[in-house]
Design a protein that fits this description.
The protein is of the alpha+beta class and 633 residues long. The chain has 15 helices and 23 strands. The strands form five sheets. The chain has a seven-stranded mixed barrel. Strands 12-11-10-13-18-15-21 form a seven-stranded mixed β-sheet. Helix 2 packs parallel to helix 5 and helix 7 runs parallel beside helix 8. The protein is globular, with a radius of gyration of 31 Å.
Length: 633
């Protein structure tokens, strides 16, 4: 029975087909507005209370998952965008103007799906909030309509230098570098012939390098480090890592060594330019930037003191235009394992999901921290790196090439692909910077690519593995070794051809799915990777240490019954002959990695869901859409 008063007219209005559609859509809008308001309040509550992430992690996510005008994170829009419903066409191909009996129902169904997606995305935001990126204008409404909401934050010179020093690690910190330390060095006020170079006098090259132009070539310096290892026969000394456009430099150089509480420097002659390369590998010619490690002894008068910075000059009294912060961090207790990764150059290749799998696997194996160097990567890889930076599992250092080498990401990518020897020589810099930054913090340091894993065959982690390996190595020589090398074995992409996907393992987990490997290992000493002992090595190359303290480097070959270097590639390296016959066509199944399967899938999927690379777990259907769907039946 229909009421006869004013509400009856409203009932009849809402009962007509098209008007009923408009009425229902209006209800949707009201419901969505109410839910959006509630979700917004929930975000405010969650962001101010204890949540899944600490404050540092939230700051990292601000630049990765900014909210779009629709209220959906950009990552969700990128991965799950949908087009609006279109009006059906008539048989003639034009838009029909006559009523379509199914049109209203189709429109409502499409609207329900769209609104449900929006509401579900909003609901997911309450579990993983992504707050505003602004640091000063967080209010949602204007207190003064005449005043625009702009960022009015200001920073001091000291603040800006501190910000820069987070990525340019060779800049000394303020107030020291501003020559404002109370008892420290001043720009003009010292009795020596050397003048302290403040931040205003420094000469940089490509952001991360400081420069010394000599009478015989140009030296680009990347980092300076304090070496007080017991086996160092030179005693307390400085190591300076850089590249110079000369082979066998014969230029005389000096270190002006500066201390926090002293106005004058102490002087020490550079006792060596240690070449981090072998001439037989190629590129041994003048004019090509070559990697070197310079050394300066600390004068006996200053033994027991920790220097703050060092300037390299051609003559002791020259006015320096470089001032390198000396990196030195010696905790009381060493951790187990650090992994160093050369400059990532994946400009257009999205390896984000594979990178998550790799990082999580190394964490399970026992890597305490992974140190990445970044040239240029796909935005999705950046998203992964920033997440793990926030959790503290990795460290990421931006990197450029020194001198006149290209640093536009596109040209540099082409350059490094073509100039292979130049690429290898440049890679030496991040490897050795990673070594010296972590000289006293870890028992072992491994140099790995993101397609390589040192896989224990006995035991379940690197700690147990190295206890057994060290015990085995001491049977022949009762002392530690400079490094412990692992045989290389290929897990090639096309070895899976002819085999189905393994059940219970998502297809997107590359390493877990690729369990066919070549039957043959590469030859002993060929394409190996090592756990390096930082107490013994001086310089590192990709595969072996190049120089060690107290004489020749000793590398212990670890038997394949203990562990192997699993290398996931599309093909053999170019220099390897007979790849098809010896490796690709001669394969066997090796499921060693599956002992970590359940833990790896769980951990990696959790991150992939959080970052929006795979759908979130099915959530409860929104109550608003359920009630509306019931009303249409």
């Amino acid at each position: 029975m229909v009421p006869s008063n004013g509400s009856g007219r409203f009932w009849r209005l809402s009962g007509r087909p098209y008007r009923r559609t408009l009425f229902i859509l209006l209800c949707f809008c009201v419901a969505y507005t109410l839910f959006h308001f509630v979700a917004k309040e929930s975000l405010a509550d969650v962001s101010t209370s204890s949540s899944l992430f600490d404050d540092e992690l939230l700051l990292q996510f601000r630049s990765i998952n900014r909210l779009t005008p629709t209220g959906i994170p950009q990552s969700h829009q990128f991965l799950s965008s949908s087009s609006p419903p279109s009006r059906p066409l008539s048989p003639g191909g034009t838009s029909s103007s006559s009523p379509n009996p199914n049109y209203s129902e189709n429109l409502i169904t499409s609207s329900l799906n769209s609104i449900n997606n929006v509401l579900n995305n909003l609901a997911s935001l309450t579990l993983a909030p992504f707050p505003s990126t602004s640091t000063t204008t967080t209010q949602s409404s204007w207190s003064d309509p005449e005043e625009p909401l702009v960022d009015k934050e200001t920073k001091t010179i000291e603040d800006m230098i501190l910000d820069a020093a987070r990525t340019i690690r060779n800049i000394p910190l303020p107030p020291y570098i501003l020559a404002k330390s109370k008892d420290g060095p001043k720009y003009f006020r010292n009795s020596s012939c050397a003048r302290f170079p403040s931040v205003y006098e420094l000469e940089f090259s490509n952001t991360f390098w400081q420069t010394l132009k000599t009478s015989n070539g140009t030296l680009h310096m990347y980092g300076a480090y304090f070496d007080i290892r017991e086996r160092n026969r030179m005693g307390p000394s400085l190591r300076i890592l850089g590249m110079m456009d000369r082979i066998e430099p014969n230029v005389s150089s000096w270190c002006q060594i500066w201390f926090e509480q002293e106005k004058e420097p102490v002087f020490s002659k550079v006792f060596e330019y240690k070449y981090i390369w072998f001439s037989k590998w190629g590129n041994y010619k003048q004019g090509v930037f070559q990697p070197y490690l310079l050394g300066c002894q600390l004068p006996k008068s200053h033994h027991g003191k920790i220097p703050t910075s060092v300037s390299v000059v051609e003559k002791p009294c020259h006015h320096a235009n470089n001032n390198m912060r000396i990196l030195f961090d010696k905790p009381k207790v060493k951790e187990g394992f650090a992994v160093c990764v050369k400059g990532l150059d994946f400009l257009h290749e999205d390896l984000s999901v594979r990178l998550v799998e790799w990082i999580e696997l190394l964490g399970i194996l026992g890597a305490n921290k992974i140190f990445f160097y970044e040239l240029a990567v796909h935005p999705n890889i950046t998203k992964v790196l920033r997440y793990y930076q926030g959790t503290g599992q990795i460290d990421v250092t931006p990197l450029t090439l020194p001198g006149g080498q290209p640093n536009d990401p596109r040209i540099r990518h082409v350059y490094l692909g073509k100039k292979v020897n130049h690429k290898r020589q440049n890679e030496v810099i991040p490897y050795n910077d990673c070594l010296y930054r972590n000289l006293y913090q870890y028992q072992y340091i491994a140099l790995l690519d993101i397609d390589e894993v040192i896989m224990p065959m006995k035991g379940t982690n690197w700690k147990d593995l190295m206890m057994e390996v060290d015990k085995k190595a001491r049977l022949s020589k009762n002392d530690s070794r400079a490094s412990y090398n692992f045989r290389n074995i290929y897990f090639m992409d096309d070895m899976m051809h002819g085999h189905t996907w393994w059940p219970g393992i998502p297809k997107y987990f590359h390493m877990l799915q690729h369990v066919y490997r070549s039957r043959n290992y590469t030859k002993p000493g060929q394409y190996v990777k090592c756990f390096h002992n930082p107490d013994r090595v001086i310089t590192l190359h990709n595969h072996f240490p190049l120089a060690c303290l107290n004489g020749s480097c000793t590398s212990f070959p670890v038997g394949t019954e203990y562990a192997q270097l699993q290398h996931y590639r599309a093909d053999c390296v170019r220099a390897l002959k007979n790849c098809d016959q010896e490796y690709r066509q001669n394969s066997l199944k090796d499921t060693t990695i599956w002992k970590y399967k359940d833990e790896l899938i769980e951990k990696a999927n959790k991150v992939l869901r959080l970052l929006g690379f795979i759908p979130s777990s099915p959530s409860t259907t929104n109550p608003f859409t359920v009630s509306i769907e019931k009303s249409l039946r």
